[in-house]
């Protein structure tokens, strides 16, 4: 049996502590915007990360049988580069979504402009596309296969 001061599984005291003031949320939105702006101007920007590629011929001009280590290195570089690009895009999108969510928490999601609500849901869809599917396998450094 729950104590009488519990509402929805949280005591009234804890519920009061969870309430966020408009001022605190506004400050947080500002911080999220600063982080997003810094990311966009940094080398971690998804476009900049995606542009940092090499060609297989940069490591060897021979065939795969001639210098297999170089080709293996290129394949691993390409795999890691793809993962970093995806991670950068996901981080960028999630920071943007947090900013919209905090603005919605401050004034209510229904009070957001329609464009912001649509952008929030578009971001969620983009993040879902970036996430590895459950049938995709990731390779750990030990060489064992694990599900993502």
Task: Describe the structure in your own words.
By secondary structure, this protein is mainly alpha-helical. The protein has one domain. 61% of the residues lie in helices and 7% in strands. The chain is built from five helices and four strands. It has a two-stranded antiparallel ribbon with strand order 1-2. A two-stranded antiparallel ribbon has the order 3-4. A hairpin with a 5-residue loop joins strand 3 (137-139) and strand 4 (145-147). Helix 2 runs antiparallel to helix 4 and helix 4 runs antiparallel to helix 5. The longest helix is centred in the middle third of the chain and has 40 residues, at 68-107.
Provide tags for this entry.
148 residues, mainly alpha, two-stranded antiparallel sheet, 61% helix, disordered C terminus
Quick synopsis:
This protein is mainly alpha-helical and 148 residues long.
- Helical coverage, percent range: 55-70%
**What's the tally of helices?**
5
Low-confidence stretches are: 139-148
Helix/strand order, N-terminal first: EEHHHHHEE
Large-scale geometry: elongated
How far the N terminus sits from the C terminus, by CA atoms, comes to 39 Å
Give the biggest sheet. 2 strands, antiparallel
Q: Rg, please?
A: 23 Å
Please, what is the oligomeric state? single chain
How many domains, as an integer? Answer: 1
What is the number of strand segments?
4
Structural class: mainly alpha
Mean pLDDT: 76
Strands in their spatial order, largest beta sheet: 1-2
Strand content: 5-15%
């Amino acid at each position: 049996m729950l104590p009488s001061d519990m509402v929805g599984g949280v005591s009234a005291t804890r519920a009061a502590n969870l309430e966020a003031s408009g001022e605190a949320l506004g400050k947080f939105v500002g911080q999220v915007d600063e982080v997003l702006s810094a990311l966009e101007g940094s080398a971690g920007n998804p476009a900049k990360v995606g542009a940092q590629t090499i060609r297989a011929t940069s490591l060897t001009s021979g065939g795969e049988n001639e210098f297999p280590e170089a080709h293996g290195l290129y394949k691993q570089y390409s795999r890691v580069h793809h993962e970093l690009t995806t991670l950068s895009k996901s981080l960028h999108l999630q920071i943007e979504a947090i900013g919209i969510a905090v603005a919605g928490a401050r004034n209510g999601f229904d009070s957001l402009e329609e464009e912001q609500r649509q952008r929030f849901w578009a971001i969620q869809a983009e993040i879902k596309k970036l996430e590895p599917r459950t049938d995709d396998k990731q390779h750990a450094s030990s060489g064992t296969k694990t599900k993502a």
